[in-house]
Amino acid sequence: MYGVIDLESYTLSIVRLNTAFGKLENCDDINEVKQLFEESLEDLETLYRDIVDDLNRDEVNLNE
């Protein structure tokens, strides 16, 4: 990833979370809500791993 956060993936993950919470509040299908939470978690875990990999590089530019 080289010091760049994937904002598209982050944004989609947050949108999925908001949608899931809205569906949860409206008592919609729990399986659909669960799937939205799982997809969001996968995206956020990928972002986390990318950030940790960037920070573990030998040289980290402070401007990144």
Number of helices: 2
Low-confidence stretches: none
Structural class assignment: mainly alpha
Radius of gyration: 15 Å
Query: What is the molecular shape?
Result: elongated
First-last Cα distance: 11 Å
Largest sheet: none
Beta-strand percentage range: under 5%
Instruction: Find the count of extended strands (DSSP E, 2+ residues).
Output: 0
Mean pLDDT: 84
Helix content: over 70%
What sequence of helices (H) and strands (E) makes up the elements? HH
Give the SSE layout.
Blueprint: H1 7-25, H2 30-55
Structure summary:
This protein is mainly α and 64 residues long. Helices cover 70% and strands 0% of the residues.
Can you describe this structure?
The chain is elongated. Helices cover 70% and strands 0% of the residues. With 64 residues, it is an all-alpha fold. The longest helix is centred in the middle third of the chain and has 26 residues, at 30-55. It starts with 6 loop residues before the first helix and ends in a 9-residue tail after the last helix. Helix 1 (7-25) packs antiparallel against helix 2 (30-55). The chain has two helices and no strands.
Descriptors:
mainly alpha, 2 helices, elongated, single chain, 64 residues
